């Protein structure tokens, strides 16, 4: 049984987020602090990713003052509480191979020291000593005590309602370590 460990290359990887509300959406990036993927006999079998929540950037708000205010709000206790919790974690608990390079991944996602199971599809291809992985992860923010303007917790929000789910579009590069 051959086990290989691939370490995520932060500079070659990206995580883009999209948050939606009644009147539109916002998007930006967030950085990976570190992580790895484990392959056994050529198949993905595990791994983990650590996200630096202090690195959240908003790309669609171009006015510097508004962008800074929005970033401060995302860092606040209404959302990520980055002063208290500057990282979020994904630990892969199981992997089901779908096709040669496609997997259904289940894991435990921890944000603000709150952990919930999550599942998503991941495409992972290895060529020589490099791994390219990509997927979309949908997260219900309310499970992680991010209830600001959620219709589940507040009424009469009208067009200020923010949808509970946000998306992470992940494109990772990792090298054999």
UniProtKB/TrEMBL annotation:
SUPFAM superfamilies linked to this entry: YceI-like
Superkingdom of the organism of origin: Bacteria
Stretches assigned to coiled coil: none
Domain Lipid/polyisoprenoid-binding YceI-like positions: 5-175
Record Pfam families: YceI (PF04264)
InterPro entries hit by this protein: Lipid/polyisoprenoid-bd_YceI (IPR007372), TTHA0802/YceI-like_sf (IPR036761)
PANTHER family assigned to the protein according to its UniProt record, in alphabetical order: PROTEIN YCEI (PTHR34406)
Name of the protein: YceI family protein
Lineage: Bacteria, Pseudomonadati, Bacteroidota, Flavobacteriia, Flavobacteriales
């Amino acid at each position: 049984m051959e086990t290989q460990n691939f370490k995520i290359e932060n500079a070659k990887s990206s995580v883009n987020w999209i948050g939606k509300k009644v009147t539109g959406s916002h998007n930006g990036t967030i950085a990976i602090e570190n992580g790895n993927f484990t392959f056994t006999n050529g198949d993905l079998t595990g791994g983990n990713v650590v996200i630096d929540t202090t690195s959240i950037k908003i790309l669609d708000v171009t006015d510097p003052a508004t962008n800074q205010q929005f970033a401060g709000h995302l860092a606040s206790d209404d959302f990520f509480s980055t002063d208290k919790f500057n990282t979020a974690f994904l630990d892969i608990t199981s992997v089901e191979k779908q096709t040669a390079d496609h997997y259904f991944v289940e894991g435990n996602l921890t944000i603000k020291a709150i952990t919930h199971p999550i599942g998503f599809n991941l495409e992972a291809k290895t060529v020589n000593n490099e791994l390219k992985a990509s997927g979309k992860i949908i997260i219900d923010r309310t499970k992680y005590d991010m209830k600001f303007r959620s219709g589940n917790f507040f009424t009469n929000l009208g067009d200020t309602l923010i949808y509970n789910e946000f998306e992470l579009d992940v494109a990772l590069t990792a090298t054999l370590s």
